[in-house]
Amino acid sequence: MNTSPESPAQGLLSRGMAALLGAQFLSAMADNLLFVAAVALLKQASDGDELLPLLQISFVLAFILLAPYVGPFADAFSKGRVMFNANLVKLVGAALILMGVNPLIGYAVAGVGAAIYSPAKYGILTQLVTPNHLVKANSLLEGSTIAAILLGVLAGGWLADRSVLLAVEVAAGFYLLAAAANLGIPTLPVIHALTSFRALGRLPRVFLSNMAVLWRNHDARFSIAGTSLFWGMGASLRLLMFAWVPAALNILDNQAPANLMGIVSVGIVLGAGLAAFLVRVDQVNRALVGGVLLGPLIVALAPMNSYEMAVIVLIGLGVAGGYFVVPLNALLQERGHETIGAGRTLAVQNLFENLAMLGMAGLYFLAVAIGMKPVAVAYGFGGVVTLGMLVLAGYRLRHSARRARSAAGAVESLPD
């Protein structure tokens, strides 16, 4: 097996980058179709919202349990082939739902595929583009993902209101197309080969070592904390939409919350585009502006009873989120590439992001269990995000100030 260093990176318009963007678009669209369909099936089964947090929990468990393995797996094989096989696993999840298996189980199997897919799709960027293109490449990948989310949730809501099983069938078809698109990604050298099956038993210990390496690096620690808070928020928000819309806006179909989720996606595309042109990796503190705005925007959304005003707030929420998360992803990929490898870095990031999703889904489940109404949950949710972002911003800015003082002192100590 080839164990040479990463192949020479190319530009943003290479064939490999085009194949990656196409495959990611199709796979992400299928993911969101399947999510909306699974939500609709659970609401039919329970006649309420109490099972919705369990859907998120069933999906993220694979990311947590497989965290020590998926990063090395992504780095041990050509990443395009890793993504191909991951899409086939997602297809199995959709097929199980079509066969009548509980949607929580089918969606959990799709989560296994997603856990395998994620380190490869981001880790491959360092092999496809040069470092000075990394933020822009992340923006293109995020833009492709968000466009797919937008179309996926819109199509999912429309299809689920007509036939939930048809929505699942369409998702399965897109997984097949995504797998075919993955075959267009060139075969790339492996980063860290697994020399034997015995090495698999050492992966949990290696994973803990990788985690320690990243956690000792302030930039990596900051990026992981920030993206974890963002994606924990995003995962809970899309569940909350299906409970908040009927309660606050008195709209009872699946299309309206799906449309509002799509509105957030539009905002994230805009925010990611702004970040690509306004924030370099060495200027990542600028992204904190977007992060600090997220919580207050959720609080502003909570009491609204106007669909039009909700659209405006959710666009703003998406812009703030895209502007915040894209530079942090690029910073983490650069630090990971310098230390333990991109695939392993993304596996560590996925663990923390999915622990955040699990924690927020657990809080949501607890809030529903004690009888909190969706509007009250939205207020509490916005407060938690606000507090978390303020703590993160304060931590980062204090560190940056100390580093600036240290640099200034070092310059002053130089001989004339």
From TrEMBL:
<dbReference type="InterPro" id="IPR036259">
    <property type="entry name" value="MFS_trans_sf"/>
</dbReference>
<protein>
    <submittedName>
        <fullName>Lysophospholipid transporter LplT</fullName>
    </submittedName>
</protein>
<keyword id="KW-0472">Membrane</keyword>
<feature type="transmembrane region" description="Helical">
    <location>
        <begin position="286"/>
        <end position="304"/>
    </location>
</feature>
<keyword id="KW-1003">Cell membrane</keyword>
<feature type="transmembrane region" description="Helical">
    <location>
        <begin position="20"/>
        <end position="42"/>
    </location>
</feature>
<feature type="transmembrane region" description="Helical">
    <location>
        <begin position="172"/>
        <end position="201"/>
    </location>
</feature>
<feature type="transmembrane region" description="Helical">
    <location>
        <begin position="91"/>
        <end position="118"/>
    </location>
</feature>
<feature type="transmembrane region" description="Helical">
    <location>
        <begin position="222"/>
        <end position="245"/>
    </location>
</feature>
<dbReference type="Pfam" id="PF07690">
    <property type="entry name" value="MFS_1"/>
</dbReference>
<feature type="transmembrane region" description="Helical">
    <location>
        <begin position="139"/>
        <end position="160"/>
    </location>
</feature>
<feature type="transmembrane region" description="Helical">
    <location>
        <begin position="54"/>
        <end position="71"/>
    </location>
</feature>
<feature type="transmembrane region" description="Helical">
    <location>
        <begin position="310"/>
        <end position="331"/>
    </location>
</feature>
<keyword id="KW-0812">Transmembrane</keyword>
<dbReference type="GO" id="GO:0005886">
    <property type="term" value="C:plasma membrane"/>
</dbReference>
<keyword id="KW-1133">Transmembrane helix</keyword>
<dbReference type="InterPro" id="IPR011701">
    <property type="entry name" value="MFS"/>
</dbReference>
<keyword id="KW-0813">Transport</keyword>
<feature type="transmembrane region" description="Helical">
    <location>
        <begin position="257"/>
        <end position="279"/>
    </location>
</feature>
<feature type="transmembrane region" description="Helical">
    <location>
        <begin position="351"/>
        <end position="370"/>
    </location>
</feature>
<dbReference type="GO" id="GO:0022857">
    <property type="term" value="F:transmembrane transporter activity"/>
</dbReference>
<feature type="transmembrane region" description="Helical">
    <location>
        <begin position="376"/>
        <end position="395"/>
    </location>
</feature>
